[in-house]
Each structure stands twice: as structure tokens, then as C-alpha cells.
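Fold it.
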Amino acid sequence: MHGVRRTATGDADKLDDDSIRTSVMQDAKTMLSRTVAFVLLGLSCASAFAQTDYISDDALYEVGLAKSWQLQLGLDCGQCLVDAFLVDDQLYFPTNDGYVFAIDAITGATRWMRQITAEGYRVSRPAQAGERTIFATPSTVTQVNKITGEGISQMALRFPAGSGPVSDGERFFLGGVNRRLYAFDVLDPVHTWRVTANGAITATPLVYKRPGTNAMNVFFASIDGTVYSATAYNKTLCWVARTYGPLDSDLAVNDLGVYVPCLDQSLYLFDLPFGELKWRVRLSSPLREPPVLTGGAAYQYSADDGLVAIDTVSIAVDERIKWRLPNGRMLLTTDEQRVFVLSTEGHILTVDVHTGEVLHGIATPGLTLGVPNPGRATIFVASPDGRVFCARLRGTPLVRREDLREALTTVPPEAKTPTAETAPPPPNVAGAPQPPPTEPPIGGRSKVSRGYGRP
């Protein structure tokens, strides 16, 4: 058990003359009690002003960026950040020992920190439903208040989860290694339906509203390369499509269709209404990450090609790949003429969106964790040692004291102290429970129990 955590401190030099200090406190014995975050106004915080910029302000100025905020998360000895996720307006930073830091993406305010799973288990990308954040581990689903980190509920799973969760606001969807996709009610997490796929579901499902319709669809894929579309409300099957190889990556979706990275070295695009193959781009190595999508392009990472810009609208095969950037690792954000790319050497590169020519390079010492954020002209990068940095296009309004106060003190109605019945127990450290062979999955009876593709 870790001791009391150190408070994350931020750089306040982009605010007004009043400095602001945030603090996150948590019960070290249970690590599940309510986290209280607050702002101390009108106090001098010399350490914040003395903190060295993680990225040179002069270098940012050359490419039209300016630092918005930076902070140092208080990590224990031996603890490090291993992932970075942006979900709506909140950043999540899981650690190597099962903890998660939640940061307001606009202000950089540290909202809470809590343990989600045991050491040795990786925390997957969470989902948000209203003011709830939903985490899934192989053995449990934990819901916490998005603002305070206060525990709302924890549900033990009777199947080993294979994917992260995704939500449409009313339900959340979770794939299992037992070849089933489950839909759970957010407020009363007993599953409302489940379907059977052709293989284990390890890719996080997608929820998307088809253009011109009121239908909310859930898209998911099994490890054997089969892709499914179903209605989110009642699991009605819309279509099934297949790739030519197995899958080991999450999917991506926009109005043009569902993008499926495959271990056969290909990126597939299937249309939304019928699942018809619109195109297939073959690269030089197996694809193990989803593409980052912008208006007319998909930026796909390949270990042998680097970052590849793919024209998502063009039908002509010879025009589909716009450029390759061998040392490109991840698209961070875009503006009208440039893309900002995190490189394999630890730099932020500004790249011509049309030609792929590298225009500038900015050193980012140790900031190797990137967060894709296309279309918002905001860059988030972090380091394993807990440094987090945010830059925005010059001219973007600066963070105000009022913004920080609101980010840290807004407590929605459902953020109440858990009762004995609803307070989540400590994380299950023994791994996924194993139900008897004849026991059905958790939850009530599904309206339709037949699967889509039983072998």
C-alpha cells in the first residue's frame, strides 16, 4: 500500500498575478474514499513560478504555439505513467501500479487520483456517461464521479473482459474474451443484452450515430477479423464484414465509415450503412494501433513505415497514400496547413499537411506519451516521470482563475458519499473470477439470446 500521495503542482505563469495551488487528498488506507480537490487563491506559490518550462517557449513561438499549462504529478518512488487518454474534456493518466490521475484538459487542474486495479493489471481507456467515468478491468467494472473521483459502484464480472468500455450515455458496452459483447445499463449495471461473436473481443467497441438517421449503432470486432454493426438499443444486427487477417487493435469511426487496422498489414474502411468495403490500404508491417482521423485523412502508424497519411476520400489506389513520415509516431493535432506529430526521437514536428515535409522540430525532453487531439489545435504530451504539458495555438484565450475554480469545485448532484450498499469494495487483486462452466454470464435474461456467428 502506498503512503499519502504528494500534491501535483502546476505552472501558473500563464494565469493572472494571483497564483493558484491545487491539492488532491485521499484516504491512504482505503484509497476509495472521496478525493477532495480545491483551489487556494491569493497565495504566493514560488515553486510554480520557478518551475522550468518543459518545452522552450521560444521554440513554441516559432511554430505559432504557446504554453497553456504544465504540471508535475506527485508520483511515489517506483511509480510511473504508462498511458495517456483524452475522453471528452478530461485527461486520464494510468500508472504502472493501477492508479489513475484525472486532469481537467482545459485548465490542467488535477481533479483526483485513485486506485482502479491492482499492480500488474493495465488500465484500459475509460468511458464517460454524463458525470460518470467507467473503468473496466479483466474482473470488475468501476464507476466513479468524473469530477471528484468518488466511488459510485463496482461490479464484479463473471466473464473476463477483453476490451475497454464505451458508452452512449445510457448504456456501456464491453467485449469479453469469451466471444461475447455485453450491453449494460449505466445506472443499474445489469446487462440488457449480449451477443456472441466468432472470436474473443479485445478491441474496444465504438458507438456512433449514423449521418441522417436517429439510429445509434455499436461497432465491434472479434480477434479473427470479423467486424459487426448492431443497434445500440436492442442488438439488432445491421451487417457483418470480414478482413483477411486477425485483429489486434481498436477501431476508429467517422461519417465515412469504420476503419479497421489489421495484422495483415492493411487498413480497411467499411461503410456505415451496409458494411461494404470502400477501400483497403496495404502498408509494410502489421497494424496494432487505430488511426487518428481528421476531416479527410487517416493517420496510421506502422512500425516499418512510420506515420502514414491516408486520403480517406480518394478512391484511386495510387492517390490514397499522401505521404509517409519514417520517424513519425503519433498525430497530436492539426491546423489548416500543418499537422503536429510526436516523433520517435522525442520531438514535436510540424509537418505540411499536403506534402509531408517537416517544417520545424521542437525538442520535448522525455515527453514521450502523446495524446491525439485532432481538430482542436491543442497539444498534450506527458512523460513517465509525471510531467504533463499543454500548448495551444497563439491567440487562444488563456486559462483564467475562474476556469480553475469551476474545474475543481463543480460537484454534480450525483456526487454523494457512497452508502454501505453502493460504496465500491477495494480492487480485486486476485484477477478475474472463474464462474462454474454451466453458469451464464452476469445479469438478467437477454431479450434475444442467439449470437451472430456461432461456429
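Residues 1-50, 412-455 have pLDDT under 50 and may be disordered.
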